[in-house]
Each structure stands twice: as C-alpha cells, then as structure tokens.
Amino acid sequence: MAKRDFYEVLGIARGASPDEIKKAYRQKAKELHPDRNQDNPQAEAQFKEANEAYDVLKDEQKKAAYDRFGHGAFEGGMGGGGGGRGAGFGQQGDFASAFSDVFEDLFGDFMGGRGGQGGRSRAQRGSDLRYNLRVTLEEAFKGVQKTISVPTAVSCESCHGTGAEGGAEPVTCPTCSGLGKVRAQQGFFTIERTCPTCGGAGQTVKNPCRACGGAGRVEKERTLSVNIPAGVETGTRIRLAGEGEAGLRGGPTGDLYIFIEVREHPIFQRDGAHLYCRVPVSITTAAIGGEVEVPTIDGGRSKVKVPAGSQTGKQMRLRGKGMPALRGGGIGDMLIELAVETPVNLTARQRELLMEFDRLSEDNNPEGSSFFSKVKSFWDGKR
User: Which helix (H) or strand (E) holds 135?
Assistant: First the structure.
C-alpha cells in the first residue's frame, strides 16, 4: 500500500511553518492516541503514520529532501538529508525522537513535570507568603507603621544557601547528568520522570549542611516593619517584594503579601471614603431645633444644627470629614443621620405635660395626618 503524502497526513499545506507543523502534529497526536481510541483498531497505525510524518517535516534537511524527492528521499540512501534514517522509521528509536518533542505539550506535568525546566537550574524560587493584618479605623484614617512577626524560611547562614557543608558548590547529578529528569522506553513511548536521585534539581550535595539538611534554608521567625498608608480598606493588599520565603539552594526569595482588614468601629460606619454616624436627638430638639455636638474620625468635634421639625432618618453632611482616598483622590464626607428618641420612664408630671401637648398638637403632625387620611379612604373604599 502506497504511503500517503506527509503533508496530507498532518492536514497542512506544503508551505507550512515549523510552528504550524508542530501544532498540526500535536492535534493529530491527541486525536489518534491509542489510549483515547481503544475501540478503533486503526488508531495505532494512524498514530505511527502521524509520528513518521512529523519526524521528517520537523527536520529542515529531511523536509527539504522530502519536498524534492518525496518518499523516495528515504529509500536506498537518496537525498542528502535523509540518508541513514532510511525506510527504517518503524524502529522505536525514531518514533521516540519524534514523539518526545511534543510529549510534555500533550501531557503537561504527567509523570514528572514539564521538561526542560525542572533540573536545568538547581535553584528554586521561594514561595510567596500571606499575612493578615488588622488595623483600626483610626489607623486606616491616619496611616500607621506596624511591626509584624512572620514565620518563614530564610537562607541558611552556615552554608550561605548552597545546601552543602562549608558553602561548597553542589555537583552534577550522576543519574540524570544535570537534566533533572530521566527517560525510560516503554513500547513506542518515551516516558520522562523526575530524577529520583536529585528530585529534579539536576545537582546533588555530597556533604549536606548539618544546619539545614542540604535545603539551603532554615525555618525562622522574622520581624518586619510595615508602612500602612492612609485610606486602606478591608481587602487592600500590600506587596513586599523579596520578603517571602527564601529559595531552595540559593534560589530567589518569594514575596510577602499583607492583606488588610479594618476593624468595625463603635461609632462610625464606612462606605468607601465616606463615613456615617447615627446621632440620637431628643424629641424636644427635633421639634424646636437646636444643636448637637458630634465626634469626627480625626478625634475632633463638630457642632451640627438640627432644623426644627426634624424627623428620624434626616441626614446632614459634613464635607471633608470622611476618610482619605487611597493613593490620593481627596477626602470623603461624613454623613450625620438623626435618630429622634422617644422618652422612657416618665414621671407623673412629664406624662401630664405630654398628654396636654398631645391635645394641643392635632395639626402639628403632617405625616401622621396624611397617613391616617389615607387609611380612612382605604377603609371607606372597602364598604
């Protein structure tokens, strides 16, 4: 049976770029993988056909020979780029070469992680750390400097982060030759695994540091001073670069992220840059008007005029008495909400005066008069 054109096998044009060839092969490999097509007896043969096509077209010299001579370029030693590979592509070595190029693109971290980056560098970046910090509303208003203690991993002073006794440099792993991974042939698959000797580091330590056990870092509690800017809110995140966990064997340090939580305040409620304050006033002050003194977040006091006839829920605004906006943008306002208080535990004389006041105030309750007028109309309509 005549072989199909390699470009046809991968479903690409003859002028396809190397990236387009690799992308097409990846797609075909996913579609035709025998493990995904156990009910298709032709899948394995088609899978091998795609790998044979890719093995030729990925190589510039072999591709040039194939474009000129076709399949004949690899029969009988013809075509400069194809000699030596010949018609023997069915051997597992050539298949493994083609498939290993995209093995990790297809399977990600399967059996030992993405190739290439595991052991080519012995150093590993330290982890980022998170610290939850609670501040008061007053501290969020002014800004504050806080001292915090963070349990973390720091570079070992005994070995200077190398992991080796006396600070000696690690040596290349004899098992993986510094790659951090090893390959094993299983049928027509080449399986890559993390090197069991060096754990993917690519290097080993002959005499591990006794202080850190060869890790190059030790657990320690660090004390840091953190500047909290004015205007922070719950959920504000502050990044301290390089203040996280030390890297393994001299790797770069991670970052520390401070997450802010602003405590609830007994007097003020916050909404962004604005503050709300609920202020109780006597029924007399609400009726005839007057003044009330209210606190402000900066620790000061402000006098607020209460208009005569004020009702519960009436709001008044004190401009510029709110919270500063983070990173500039001005200062918010403070909103005063009145709560008219009903007196309790009345004396006999107070009750007498209130009853007399009630008899004289039939026309002084506009909201009540309007409500009960509507109620009367509602009842009349039901008859």
Answer: strand 129-135
| Ordered structural domains, the chain, with CATH | 6-107 (1.10.287.110), 129-262 (2.10.230.10), 268-340 (2.60.260.20), 348-382 (no CATH)
Under 8 Å CB-to-CB from 250, ≥6 apart: which residues? 122, 123, 155, 160, 161, 162, 216
176 is in an annotated binding site: yes
Q: Identify the pLDDT of residue 89.
A: 40
Looking at residue 96, its pLDDT comes to 46
With a pLDDT cut of 90, the percent of the chain lying above it is: 34
C-alpha–C-alpha distance, residues 372 and 376, integer Å: 6
What's phi and psi for 174, nearest 5 deg?
-70, -20
User: Tokens in use for 324?
Assistant: 């500063």
pLDDT the model gives residue 291? 93
Distance of CA 326 to the CA centre of its chain: 22
- The answer to whether the annotation marks 159 as part of a ligand binding site is yes
Distances from the Cα of 227 to the Cαs of 140, 143, 260, in angstroms?
11, 8, 12
Is there a binding annotation on residue 212?
yes
Alpha-carbon span 61 to 341, nearest angstrom: 93
Q: Are 9 and 50 in contact (CB under 8 A)?
A: yes
For 166-188, the pLDDT digits (tens) are 767 777 888 887 787 888 766 66
Q: How far is CA 2 from CA 6, 28, 95, 102, 235, in A?
A: 12, 21, 20, 27, 67
Segment holding 99, helix H or strand E: helix 92-100
What is the separation, in whole angstroms, between the first and last Cα of the chain? 99
Q: Which residues of the chain have pLDDT under 70?
A: 1, 74-123, 167, 185-189, 249-250, 362-366, 368-369, 382-383
Ligand-binding site membership of 277 (annotated): no
Q: Return d(Cα 228, Cα 260) in angstroms, integer.
A: 9
Helix (H, G, I), strand (E, B) or coil at 315: strand
pLDDT single digits (tens) 228-262: 999 999 999 999 998 888 877 667 889 999 999 99
pLDDT at 320: 94
- How many angstroms separate the CA atoms of 22 and 331, rounded? 57
